Amino acid sequence: MLRGDKFKAFCTLLPSILLIGLFVYGFIGNTFWISLTDWGGTGALARNPVKNFAGFYNYKELFAGFLGVGFRQDLVNAVFYSVLLLAGAIGIGLFIAILLDNKPRGEAFFRTVFLYPMSLSFIVTGTIWRWMLAPQGGVNILPTFVGLEPMQFRWLSSTGAIVEFNWQNLLQVGLYLSAFILIIVGFVSLKQAPQRSLKRYLVPGVAIGAFAWLAGDVLPKALFMEESHGFNVATIGIILATIWQYSGYTMALYLAGFTGISQDLRDASMLDGASTVAYYRHIALPMLKPITISAVIILSHISLKMFDLIFAMTGPDNGETGHPALNMYLTTFRANDFAKGAAIAIILFLIAATFIIPYLISSYRQRRTR
Fold it and tell me: Has residue 364 been placed in a domain?
């Protein structure tokens, strides 16, 4: 029985719990149910459309069907979007934050300039960068100001691809990579916690590696088609625009963290002979690990919601710069294939959950141990 303050707190939170349960998790559950049907086609917009249960057919078509090749390339694009956005925005933002943390002249002005792109919407950013990266203008004509020939690089319309790989080998490569990471982490932590290292990292890593070697290609050969995917050069312009917009955001996060570190700690490290580089590497950055984790989670979610930026920069029909979010929109509202669009939405939801759920579990465990 709940009594006193606990009962009052429960009654206060109950409306929010019910609303979140209905309008968030209820709609997620409904989307998942729709993804298991065949809702689509010419009768999809009828007043009472026919929805037959189809199981995981839509998911199978997306990952292994002949018509799902576009989605698979979009999924590969999303991985490159996420990785390069994280590396670029966090790296540049951290570098700028360190420069501003040393109090240069005009610090307030530069802080405002670097943070300003964050205030723009993706549509505005996309329009500006589309003009800048136009094949017959923008940055391509900059060499003409010094008497050189204009560049001919097609920033947003190139059809070239690099780092190509066979989709059929993707699962096996992913298993090998997971096993390698687990084994490396296990060896690093072996001296500090031998039992934990063996139980959580080394044994699972060896097991995953053995499975990948013995049977990792059985399922791909049975289901996946042999097709080539890679990093499309046309995505470079979109990645540059995204990094430009969110580097200031990560700068603000790190700068706030640096400001929260006691000046006495920095002075003491300098008196002990630590250089500026050593201070940031061994003292400041380890203390800002929660900020780094938060930046990774936030930017990872942003990379999964780049629909408006890509739509503004390259339009909906440029397959070279596609993204699952854009594919979901076109599949649902242009092709009227609501079931397959719902399946793409659930896949994006699960990808986003892989970033946030481990963080929530870790935070919960830390609070329990305090």
Answer: yes
